[in-house]
């Protein structure tokens, strides 16, 4: 009984440590990058920066420059 309870607790804890890709969605990351640059979003993909999950958002700025904005998945901060 104790082993079963321990395994159940471990499974519940493991479920809470899952990757945080859903904290900031792909669409939310695109909107964040668009607001930060005033440009048009060309592509959004999953990536890592400094060991942390980020969205890599490629944006065409109003001046015609292509920029890559990294949006932290957990905080939504644009880099």
TrEMBL record:
Entry keyword set: Signal
InterPro entries noted in UniProt: PepSY
One Pfam family named in its UniProt record: PepSY
Domain annotation PepSY: ranges: 24-77
Signal peptide feature range: 1-22
Protein name: Peptidase
The organism of origin for this protein: Ramlibacter lithotrophicus
Organism phylogeny: Bacteria, Pseudomonadati, Pseudomonadota, Betaproteobacteria, Burkholderiales
